[in-house]
Amino acid sequence: MSDISKRSIDRLSLYLHYLRDKKEQGIKDISSVTIAGDMNINAVTVKKDLARIAGQSGKPRIGFDIETLIHDIQTALGYNKLDNVVLVGVGQLGHVLLSYNGFAGYGLNIVAGFDTDQSKVGTVVCGKPIFHIDRLADVVSKYDVRMGIITVPKEHAQAAADCMIAAGIQGLWNFAPTHINIPENVMIKNEDLASSLAILSNELRKK
Amino acid sequence: MSDISKRSIDRLSLYLHYLRDKKEQGIKDISSVTIAGDMNINAVTVKKDLARIAGQSGKPRIGFDIETLIHDIQTALGYNKLDNVVLVGVGQLGHVLLSYNGFAGYGLNIVAGFDTDQSKVGTVVCGKPIFHIDRLADVVSKYDVRMGIITVPKEHAQAAADCMIAAGIQGLWNFAPTHINIPENVMIKNEDLASSLAILSNELRKK
DNA sequence: AATATATCGATAAAAAGATACCGATAACTA
DNA sequence: TAGTTATCGGTATCTTTTTATCGATATATT
Question: Is the Cβ atom of A44 within 7 Å of strand D at any atom?
Answer without folding.
Answer: yes
